[in-house]
């Protein structure tokens, strides 16, 4: 990575939103053949929130999380220059970020979606920091939001136990180079294994015989859980090591490990591979399951609310998932 930094970037505020409706493991065991014991032992998940309202979408969650982040610092939405909505479940294939822009009244903001599944938030933060560190923009709203419950096959016990819906938002602001808190990043993609985790376009569903073409429809989420597990546990530690080595810091300097909340066993395995004490793992997936692009900002917001994270703490943040995509961003926490 080459840096052309003319100024710094720091996270100024966070906010998050989850639907009211909670689905427990025991409730899922009434739909498919599973048990609370199996789900907790294999994943660490106890319950997840689902967006159930007919007229509710990803946009409602993203708007709520964004307003909370704005309100925390009494920022007028018109001060936002750019909105990046990391999501793989938009309510409009052309993108949902512009709906968020309009609903929160960010009248001066450019807005676009970023599709990178569970790595979306990490990619969003890195993208935002480029615009800030090169002096293009001053305030950027990065949202990670997903409603995978809408794309799950609720008769497939290997996937329906895992996912929940949520949104998390961060406001990142330009600052002096000395106060820069987005210290480094390391990103990867390997499309050879795209079939391990996908929500595929299904051309068989909608053939138009008059025009001899196929029209849009998507299948349910499908995942090779075992392979994704092996990929995460082997590749995420390497990404983190590359990132900290090129920053010339050591494993001992890490205060918090904030990984995509996919599976408690993955969080522990990554920490153990890196010899990071498991007490440094930030985890809230027992309450929310895997919320895809929302999982990292949701856990970050919660860790800040509970005052886990202190000024100057070094947080290693890693996302991984479909694509396959994975990457790390290292944040030095500057209190806002
Ligand atoms: O967000 C993107 C990133 N995604 C991930 O990181 C997910 C990574 N993968 C995982 O977290 C794990 O692979 C899972 C939690 C999805 C599955 O755990 P596992 O320990 O890899 O289980 P498995 O797929 O190897 O299945 C073991 C057994 C199988 O039965 P047999 O073949 O041994 O008789 C499955 O049929 O468990 C069975 N099984 C279940 N049993 C009860 C699979 N799902 C369930 C279930 N309840 N829900």
Automatic annotation (TrEMBL):
Cell compartments where the protein resides: Plastid, Chloroplast
Active site: 118, 260, 290
Domain comment, as recorded: The last Arg residue of the ACP-binding site is essential for the weak association between ACP/AcpP and FabH.
Principal subcellular localisation of the protein: plastid
GO-annotated cellular components: chloroplast
Pfam family name, one: ACP_syn_III_C
Species per Swiss-Prot/TrEMBL record: Bostrychia simpliciuscula
InterPro entries: ACP_syn_III_C, ACP_syn_III_N, FabH, Thiolase-like
Keyword Repeat among record annotations: no
Record-linked Gene3D superfamilies: 3.40.47.10
Stored NCBIfam families: fabH (TIGR00747), PRK09352.1 (NF006829)
Domain Beta-ketoacyl-[acyl-carrier-protein] synthase III N-terminal as annotated: residue spans: 112-191
Name of the molecule in the record: Beta-ketoacyl-[acyl-carrier-protein] synthase III
Listed pathway(s): Lipid metabolism; fatty acid biosynthesis
Subunit comment: Homodimer.
EC number(s) given by UniProt: 2.3.1.180
Catalytic reactions on record: malonyl-[ACP] + acetyl-CoA + H(+) = 3-oxobutanoyl-[ACP] + CO2 + CoA
GO molecular function, one term: 3-oxoacyl-[acyl-carrier-protein] synthase activity
Region listing for ACP-binding, in residue ranges: 261-265
The family this protein is said to belong to: Belongs to the thiolase-like superfamily. FabH family.
Transferase as UniProt keyword: yes
Limits of the Beta-ketoacyl-[acyl-carrier-protein] synthase III C-terminal domain: 247-333
Keywords, in A-Z order: Acyltransferase, Chloroplast, Fatty acid biosynthesis, Fatty acid metabolism, Lipid biosynthesis, Lipid metabolism, Multifunctional enzyme, Plastid, Transferase
Domain of life: Eukaryota
